[in-house]
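Dear colleagues,

I hope this message finds you well. In preparation for our joint manuscript, I am sending the CDP-alcohol phosphatidyltransferase family protein (Motiliproteus coralliicola) sequence together with its predicted structure, so that both groups work from identical material. I would be grateful if you could confirm receipt.
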Amino acid sequence: MKMRNRHWQKFLKFGKGLNTLTIKELRAVCQPAYKQKIDPLMEWYLLRPFSIYFTWFFVRLGVGPNWVTLMGMLLGCAGSGLLMLGQVGWGVAGAVLIWLGFLFDCVDGEVARYSGKGSLRGTYLDYFVGGVNDMAIMLGLSFYVAQTMGWPLVLVVTAGVAMAYLEKIIGLYAQCVIYRNIRASWDSVEVDEAQSYDDKVWKEMGLWSRLLRVPFETFFRASLILVAFIVGASVGEHQVVAWAWVLILVLGYTLVAKSFYSEFFQDRVGTSMADFIGALKGRV
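The corresponding structure tokens are as follows:
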């Protein structure tokens, strides 16, 4: 009994300040207005309305944002593991876990904003977990499609994993080149200034540009996978999921080609670096 009372007191202590804080007030702190312009459209309208309730719960328990990020990775990887079983029932469960993993990707940032515990380490972990989940999702989905459709396992898995890898690596290398050259060209650049520049670029995106990005967003794919498994389970047909996999591959490799063309042939890397340095010089 004493042990139970101690845990209950700990629970109340961690949640101090939330007793009088409404969900609306918590949302104002954790989901500031500028996020509506930065977040992907589907994430803002499908995840943020629900993520705040999970945020309230984790803040109440005193769970830090990095732990929430790791829980999101566990959900994503567990869901992908269920897809590998090649059974439609487990596939639906796995797709739900994957979808929840993306929900937790919103929650960790909200917990960080409320608690003031945001850090570069947490940002790194967030990006790392995102990459792991994207790879795991394509791996699990490809295994499912290969098993249920009788397609060559090696070819199907290679096509899916290669797409996820190329998407990440092209953007990653572009950012590495930009910031390495910024450092070499302008020693006064600080991380917060780099972040403010990135935010400025996102804020200047128009609605049409953001709508065009929707089919290429990873959360769109997670939602497509979930819908495909639910429909496939209801009609007893694996082809629905297989066509979803094909669509994801088409979108993914289209994005890979467009990104490489922009970075290499149109030199978006050099243009971004020049704009960044010019903006910083204008402040001095």
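For the figure legend, we might mention the following. The chain has 13 helices and no strands. The CA atoms of residues 56 and 172 lie 33 Å apart.

With kind regards,
E.M.
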